[in-house]
Structures are given as structure tokens and as C-alpha cells.
Amino acid sequence: TLMQRKNSPVNILSAGCSYGEEVYTFATACRAYGINARIKGVDISPLAIEVAKEGVYTLDALEEEYISVEDKYKQNYRAKVTSMFKAMFEKSPKNESRWEAKDGEFMNCSFEARNISDLGTTEEENSQDLILCRYVLYHIDNLQTLRQTINGFYTILKPGGLLSLNAQEYEKYEELL
Questions:
Q1: Could you report the per-residue pLDDT of 80-104, keeping only the tens digit for each?
Q2: 58-86 b/e (C-beta count within 10 Å ≥ 16 → b)
Q3: Helix (H, G, I), strand (E, B) or coil at 54
Q4: What gap in Å lies between CA 151 and CA 51, rounded to an integer?
Q5: Quick one: 127 exposed, middle or buried, by C-beta within 10 A (0-12, 13-18, 19+)?
Q6: For the whole model, what pTM was predicted?
Q7: Do 23 and 39 meet the contact criterion of CB atoms below 8 Å apart?
Q8: Which residues pair with 132 in a beta bridge?
């Protein structure tokens, strides 16, 4: 399967990554399960991308991402990922209620300020194994922009790649998929 490849990294794109919690959560989970992954977060907001690059969060913000995934997978997921989380993050010396990514732990993660409706340029064709786009598409009101965004996703997905949407977005835009 997609996540069982040993030789080449799995390329994951978090489209509309906001402040980057999803990127760090997936990086931590991939490490916990021995998956070689490169994860890129893209968001339209340069400010959000700067926050994401800093990698400093409250424990609640990161645990919210873990909990949303935990409900769908094995029981031991949270314990395994929490253990890895503690190895990859440390309490911030500036603020005890915040955690920050340890230096060098997230070399496989990158962030870019970019409009997701512009994805799908030729140099990106067939480049992604998995695209995460949760709670983003319903913010796009223009049908043409929405089609452009979805077509861009399919352009950059590798054959057999996966597009992960939340249930509400899938139901709302099923006819476009």
C-alpha cells in the first residue's frame, strides 16, 4: 500500500494547513510508524505560514489533531504518537504552556504561502501520494475556483494517490469529484 513503501518517501501535501498543526501531527505519526514521509503545508496566509514554521503550539492544539485521528484508527495510536511527540517536541523555555519542535526533528516538513487554487503546475504533476484538505474547500464559494482547485489536486496526485477530504466537503462537492 501507499504507506508501506520502503525505498522512496511518501509525499504528503496539507492543503490549507493554517498554522501547521496537521503537518506536525502527520510527521510525528509517520515517524512513530516508521514511514519515510516528506510533508508540505500550503496556506494562502503568509502570517499563518510564519507561525507554522516556528512550530510552537499549546499542547491542546496538537492533541486536538491527535484526537481527531485517534477516533478512526487503532486504540494504541494515541499512546504511540504521544510518546513520539514527547521525543520531537519540548516545553518552550519562553512559555511553559507551549511546546516547540526540537531542532532538526522536522527536516522532512516544509511550508509555503500559496493559494491552493494555483496548485497543479507542470512541475508538480504526479508529485503527491496524499493530499490532506480538511475544512478548506467549503470556504470556496466560486464554482469555477472550486473546480480549478480540485483539478489541480488531481494533476499533482500520483497515479493511485489519495485525496483526503472531510465528510461534509465530500458530500457537498461529490459531483465535482
A1: 767 777 788 888 888 878 888 888 8
A2: eeebbbebbeeebeeeeeebbeebbebbe
A3: helix
A4: 29
A5: middle
A6: 0.83
A7: yes
A8: 14, 164
